[in-house]
Amino acid sequence: MSRSTSSPSARGGPVTLAMVARRAGVSPQTVSNALNSPGRLRPETLERVRRAVDEMDYRPSRAAQALRTRSSRLIGYGVQPAPAATAAPVMDRFLHALSQAADEAGHRILLFAAPPGDPTLHGFEDLLGRHEVDGFVLSGTALHDPRQAWLAKRGVPFVGFGRMWSKRQIGDWVDVDGAFGTDAAVEHLVAAGHRRIGFLGWPRGSGVGDDRARGWQRAMRRHALPTRGRRVESVDDVEAASGAVKPLLDAGATAVVAASDMLALGCYQALRERDAAVGRDVAVIGFDDSPTASILSPGLASVAQPLEAVGRECVRLLLARMADADAPPERLLLEPSLVIRDSCPDTGPDPHGPPPPYGA
After folding, report:
1. Residue 342 lies in a domain
2. How many whole angstroms separate alpha carbon 213 and alpha carbon 179?
3. Each residue's pLDDT tens digit, 150-168
4. Where is the composition biased (Pro residues) (predicted)?
5. How much is the pTM?
């Protein structure tokens, strides 16, 4: 017999399945069928039971459901420690969206500690050995990531927030089209009159970083603008980014597209050190639209990821995989949106004038 964990009865205790059965004038087994196998009941009986369930605010316990279905209704998610001064709030927003979508689907997210650095299998085998999760959501996907192949070999459902960044794709994933975002940033800058547009990115070899650099490069070439010497690299740190962007500023860049808001903050610092104004002298666009972007002065224009949609789609794909292990893999690439703020005015250098030589 399953019991509610939230709804008190008239006597002050939890509402039970037997109480609902008495209210509806049916057997406890009929109530169980209404909740778990409604197709077995006549429509009028099903309606009577559902009305009683609603009136008494009955909620079956998750433990009882797990015993019946052999499902924990738990989804595992490994959390890595966030280094200081990173865009951790972005992943916080994703985790909130993921948790909300899972909750609406009757599941819960079970967090476990993952070591810092490259993705590892730490925690996965332990959880599976104790049968505590039905599947996993992976984030921080990278080249040579061992998790997808390991889980697939064992028949464990999973979905990735992020591509695998290799020719061999395994499993379902949802990702944000970073190249689309930086392409849109360049388009906006060109429309505002900029021609000397630099890119401040992460070191090559990062799948996400290379994808964002690819969009900048694609848009620059589409407008016949030179890219050679206009891309610099830095780790996601304000001080490091401030030093890395200086060659672009020394060469006369009028705009900088950054692979993250953290890198864009480094550009802010470098400009202030030389008494130049963000927006007026050099336009800056970041990526991730972190909470910092809107409170900076001037506000940082940035590419916003649709994290709520990512969370919903991750849960949808994972539940679909749990229901049908043999279905073809589904892979979704969602488009981000450009959020314009004062760091990127709508007007810049004369758009009709010839591009000045780089460094002039």
Report:
1. no
2. 7
3. 999 888 999 999 998 888 8
4. 351-360
5. 0.76
